[in-house]
Design a protein that fits this description.
This protein has helices spanning 2-19, 198-203, and strands at 25-39, 43-44, 54-55, 72-76, 81-87, 95-103, 115-124, 128-136, 161-172, 175-182, 207-214, 220-231, 236-239, 242-245, 250-262, 266-276, 285-292, 299-315, 319-333, 343-346, 350-364, 367-383, 390-408. It is mostly beta strands. Strand 13 (236-239) and strand 14 (242-245) form a beta hairpin.
């Protein structure tokens, strides 16, 4: 811990010294956040339960008792955040800026180490801008729900920060176009060897996104986008006691549309997606094996398709109540599956997922206190190999209660 403290002090000293140079400005920001939560049963909730997604299915012991029907809860502050915004000298006609942001979310289940949240440079020519580095995935976008849970609306709202090169162009005062190519670092796709960066690294084709945002009138924001991901699940296979080099690829396309209206003291927002293999953005999804070569074991793949929609309304300033509703439906696969066991992703045995969030926050300068009640119901079942849809479902419900305290600086 002493080493981490010394590192932070050194970073602050370095940034402070650099910022004194001519034409440089800097601004520190961040918050201290505490989350106190309770769940009525076990859930898919990474980061020690802080990043809540959905309830887990029943898992029976030898006596037929559900191992997941066990309440849990805790209190954490490791999502506290520190960031630095820097503006530098102009490069030709471009205004230069940079951001670096960190918290203690860690990697590989460790919540006692610093991690990079965002780290990028940006060149802005006014009508166009180029960003290079790690920041929010374009599917996260400018429209996100106003909720208290750290998951920020996932698994209905895409949640992901990735290395990328992003180009934005302002066609006029009301239209902005975006094009991005992205790679993976902390948020990874699933595959035959679990979650790994190798699938997109071996693909040699980055994720791609194109989108447009419109502001037709004051207070309104709407837009749409298209996304492509192409993975190489394997480059070799062990088949019939022999090793073969294979050329496998899984390619999927997704589409989204979003809307937001900001009134004097209220906001309404919504987003809908036709999502394929977006499990690395914390959405339900993935892909499965659709064929196997009898000689080499080379596999073909088909992505699962999910329809995902959320709506959110929040009102007020000092006291701010809000409601969020999210719904996901598994629409199956384009090709038949070889086996229900040869699927890779998150929540692929869920037919439907419904989540409601009722929250209220009390806001003061630099302070926020909040309370949120979040019931969620997942309909689990068996996979129909012909269609990839989920049948013979049963409902599993979790009740989550969250208390939040935040101090901003």
């Amino acid at each position: 811990m002493r080493r981490i403290t010394l590192l932070l002090v050194g970073m602050l000293a370095l940034f402070s010294t650099t910022a004194q140079r001519k034409n440089f400005t800097y601004k520190f920001y961040g918050f201290v956040r505490g989350d106190l939560f309770y769940n009525s049963r076990a859930n898919m909730a990474p980061i020690d339960g802080n990043f809540y997604l959905y309830p887990l299915d029943k898992s029976f012991d030898a006596d037929g008792k559900d191992l997941n029907a066990t309440p849990n809860g805790s209190f954490y502050t490791f999502t506290s955040r520190l960031g630095l915004d820097v503006t530098g000298p102009d490069i030709g006609k471009a205004r230069s800026s940079a951001k670096i942001e960190t918290d203690f979310g860690g990697f590989s289940g460790s919540n006692t180490m610093l991690r990079i949240r965002q780290a990028y440079v940006n060149l802005d020519w006014g009508k166009s801008a180029v960003l290079v580095g790690i920041t929010w995935h374009p599917l996260f976008g400018a429209v996100m729900p106003d909720v208290l849970n750290l998951s920020t609306g996932a698994p209905f709202q895409p949640f992901n920060r990735s290395p990328q090169i992003r180009y934005q162009y302002k066609a006029n005062s009301r239209v902005q176009l975006t094009a991005s190519v992205l790679w993976q670092l902390q948020y990874l796709s699933s595959g035959p060897k679990g979650m790994s960066e190798d699938y997109i690294k071996n693909s040699c084709i980055p994720e791609m996104f194109v989108g447009a945002d419109f502001t037709p009138a004051d207070g309104w924001l709407m837009g749409l986008g298209a996304h492509m991901i192409s993975l190489k699940p394997r480059t070799s296979t062990e088949w019939k006691e022999q090793t073969f080099k294979v050329n496998e690829r899984m390619t999927a396309f997704s589409y989204e549309a979003h809307l937001k209206y900001s009134g004097r003291n209220y906001t309404f927002a919504a987003k809908t997606l036709m999502a394929s293999a977006l499990d690395h953005t914390a959405l339900l999804g993935g892909y499965g094996v659709s064929s196997v070569d009898s000689r080499t074991g080379e596999q073909g793949y088909t992505p699962f398709r999910h329809s995902t929609t959320w709506v959110n309304f929040a009102y007020g300033t000092k006291w701010r109540p809000g409601v969020f509703v999210g719904y996901t439906k598994n629409l199956g696969t384009g090709k038949s599956l070889v086996s229900a066991d040869k699927v890779y992703g998150m929540g692929l045995d869920i037919d439907q997922l419904i989540t409601v969030s009722l929250n209220v926050s009390y806001n003061l300068p630099h302070w926020k206190f909040g309370f949120e009640y979040c019931p969620a119901t997942a309909y689990y079942g068996t996979t129909d190999l012909e269609s990839g849809r989920i049948e013979q479902t049963h409902a599993i419900t979790n009740h989550r209660i969250l208390g939040l305290m935040m101090y901003y600086f």
